[in-house]
Amino acid sequence: MSIQSFSGFEPLMNDGLDGMAPKRVLKYVESRKKENHPVVGIYCGYAPVELIQSMGIVPAVLCSFSHSPIESAETVLPANLCPLIKSSYGFIMEGACPFYALSDAVIAETTCDGKKKMFEMIADIKPTFVMDLPQMPDEISASLNWKNMILNLQAFLEKNFDHTTNNEKIEHAIQWANKKNRLMQKIFDYASLTPPAISWKEIYDVGFLALPSTGEEMVPLLEKLIKKLDNRVKEGVYFGKPDSPRVLVTGCPIGGDATKIFNVIEEAGGVVLAPDSCTGMKSFMELFDENTGDPVDAIARRYLKIPCACMTPNNKRLNDLSLLIDRFKPDVVIDFVLQACHAYNVESYKVGQFVSEKHHLPFLKIETDYSSGDIGQLKTRVEALFESL
Ligand code: SF4
Ligand code: SF4
């Protein structure tokens, strides 16, 4: 049985919220808040969630993927700024992000310039801690500096909330995070099948919940989902058709209105594999070193392995992309770049060359925002790409 949508078969999570990832996570954050756990808002894949969780604090990913608050944001911010930054700010201006409303503090990182400056503008609304992210991950000093920054974050959280942590609790959190990440890898493996037994929507749903949840909370659910996916494989339930073009999407984070690119790919007859982005696989790719005696150092080293375009050089992105191409066997690679994201935009040239020269695969760079105005044009470009295969 071939499927492209949620109708006609048992949805993966089957809790009435399939395809509604933010609602499910909101339910989770609200329930934890009711149990008197503080909530901190986060924006980025570099936020060390395991340290936060080891303190009994809940990390909540703040809203940043909708086009609707951008008009308000542009009354303050320049129009030629990345939509993710404008949307984040607009949500706060309009009081429209329920996760921000639940947050007792915000954790930010010095990733790109636009975000850094936007954080200055929201810093006086709620207690905000900005982590100075080393941007040359191969330097010996990088992990030491990032470890110190994580310790400073711990001090900030201890000062603002009546919650503490210690090496034992942090070690516990990272060991469970490793269990969670290993199972997430198994979930992604179902997207490597031909045809895939899991859709991008389901991967998005699972990842959205897995990011703020602890390993202990997620592992039983992930084990259940893996059994369901095994059954799908046995029953021959899959997405797309055996000959649908397989598309690996890499680049900027994709959620909410930006998922238009996934819909365009599906409507053109393609099948989206597990996305190579912070809203896809990136947050679950690496494991923490266990039992080192210094779990904060283990956290620092693990987070600096995230191959974000804010890093220089960012060779790890290409190495990881090679592994993903070997694992998922795409027919094409699409680099998704948000307008005015200079880091991913400039890096796209290198990524394109690498994909064509090393892997001999067609490559398409898509530069877009959160509006729906270019959907027709995106469709034409993706259809032309598939026709060329
Ligand atoms: S792409 Fe980079 S800056 Fe954006 S969320 Fe991921 S790690 Fe953070
Ligand atoms: S997509 Fe690019 S410009 Fe936008 S917030 Fe992320 S790194 Fe910054």
Stretches where pLDDT falls below 50 for ≥5 residues? none
Major beta-sheet overview: 4 strands, parallel
CATH architecture of the domain at 21-162: 3-Layer(aba) Sandwich
End-to-end distance: 25 Å
CATH topology of the domain at 21-162: Rossmann fold
Count of individual beta strands = 10
Order of helices and strands: EHEHEHHHEHEHHHHEEHEHHEHEH
Helix content: 40-55%
Structure ligands = iron/sulfur cluster
Please report the number of helical segments: 15
Q: Please give the CATH class of the domain at 21-162.
A: Alpha Beta
Q: Pairing-aware structural class of the strands and helices?
A: alpha/beta
How would you describe the shape?
globular
Core attributes:
single chain, Rossmann fold, four-stranded parallel β-sheet, binds iron/sulfur cluster, alpha/beta, 389 residues, 10 strands
Explain what the structure shows.
By secondary structure, the chain is α/β, with parallel strands linked by helices. The chain has a domain at 21-162: Rossmann fold, CATH 3.40.50. Helix content is 49%, strand content 11%. The strands form three sheets. A four-stranded parallel beta sheet has the order 3-2-4-5, with helices on both faces. Strands 8-7-9-10 form a four-stranded parallel beta sheet, sandwiched between helices. A two-stranded parallel ribbon has the order 1-6. The protein binds iron/sulfur cluster (2 copies). Residues 82, 84-85, 111-112, 114-115, 252, 310, 338, 341, 343-344 line the site of one iron/sulfur cluster (SF4). The site of one iron/sulfur cluster has 9 residues, from loops.
